[in-house]
Design a protein that fits this description.
The protein has helices spanning about 25-45, 65-80, 100-105, 120-125, 135-145, 165-175, 200, 210-225, 245-250, 275-280, 295-305, 320-330, 345-350, 350-359, and strands at about 1-10, 10, 25, 50-55, 80-90, 110-115, 150-155, 180-185, 230, 235, 255, 260-265, 270, 290, 310, 335, 340. The chain starts with a strand and ends with a helix. It folds into 2 domains: about 1-250, TIM Barrel (Alpha-Beta Barrel); about 295-359, Winged helix-like DNA-binding domain superfamily/Winged helix DNA-binding domain (Arc Repressor Mutant, subunit A, Orthogonal Bundle). Helices cover about 40% and strands about 25% of the residues. The structure holds iron/sulfur cluster.
Length: about 350
Amino acid sequence: MTGLYFHIPFCARKCPYCDFYSVSYSRETAEAYVGAILRNIRAYAVSDTVDSVYFGGGTPSLLSAAHIGKIIELCAARYHFSEDAEITLEYNPTGNRADYLRELRAAGVNRLSVGTQSFSDEELRMLGRTHSAAQGMAAVRAAADAGFSNISCDLMLALPGQTKEILRGSIRCLSELPVTHVSAYLLQIEEGTPFSQNAALLSRLPDDDGAAELYLHAVSALDAAGFRQYEVSSFARSGMRSRHNLKYWQCEPYLGIGAGAHSCFDGRRFCVPRDIAAFIEAPVQPEKLIDAQPCMQEERMMLALRTTDGIPENALSASARKQLPMLCKAGYVRQGSGRIFLTPEGFAVSNAVIAALIS
Ligand code: SF4
C-alpha cells in the first residue's frame, strides 16, 4: 500500500515559531500551483494500491474545496484507491466555515486534522495564532456537524509558561469534543524564527526536565481521556490511529508532491526544493535525492521504536542487549512477549534511548 502526500505551502500569515516552508496566499498562485499538482499526478505511476492521501502544509484549508476535489478526483482516476482510503486535510480553525467543511466532505476528504494547538487563549496569543480557544472548539464541532467522524487535533507541549493545569484544561476540552486523535508535540525553537530571538519568551521556556514532566503529564491525562498513545507524539481512540502517520514509522512508501514535499517512493528517498516558482514552472517536479537505499534495517528499527509496537528483542545487537537491563531498571524500556518497547518515560527522552539501543 502507498500513501500520497500533497504539500500546500500557503499561509495567511507566518506563525512566529514555525520554520515550515510557506508563502503568502494569492488566488492566481494557488490556481497555478494546483495545476502543477495535477500535472505531477499524471507524471507519476503508482502501481500499488493507495490507502491514504494527506494534504499538509502550510495551510491546505486555504485552497478551495473545488481545488481539493479536483486533486482527489484525478488521483482516484489515475491510481487504484483502496475502498477505505483515509483522506486527511490539515484545517486551520479560523472563522465559521460550515459550508466549506461540507464541501470538503463531499469532495472525499474523510479525516480532518485541526490545528487547534491549545485551548488556552493566552497560549494561542503567545503562539501568534489567529484563532481563539472558542473558535478551535467551534471548528471541531462544525466539522462533526459536516459529517467528519475522524477528527484529529494538534496540541503543543512545553510552551513558555505552560503549567500542568493549563495543559489539563486543553486536554479536558479535547475529551469533551468529538475528537478521535491527538498529535501532541513539544515546541521546538527553530533557528531564525522570531521566537528564537525573543529573550523574554525564551526565559519562560521549561528546561529539559520541565518539558519531560509536561510531556508525561499529557500522556497520562490523554490516556485517562481515552486517547491511547501509539507513537511518541500520537494518541488515538480505539481503531482511530492515523494510517498516513504510521506509514512514516513503518517505512511504508509514500509519494510527496509539491514544493518542499518529501517522498519515500520507488526505493528512493527524495525531496522537492522549497521553491514554489520552480515547482509551478517545471513540467515534472524536480527531485533531490536524499537516500538511494532508504529503510535499511537500522532505520526500520529506529522508526519502529518510536511506536508502542516496539521491535523484537532478537533484532538487537549483542552490545545493545547488554544495555537492556539498565534501560529497563531506569524505566525507559520494558520487555514482553519477546519484544521491547519504550515506556512513556523512554519516549520523553527517545533520542537518547534509541541511540543506546541501536548503536
Ligand atoms: S504553524 Fe502552520 S499556519 Fe503557522 S506558519 Fe507554520 S504552517 Fe503556517
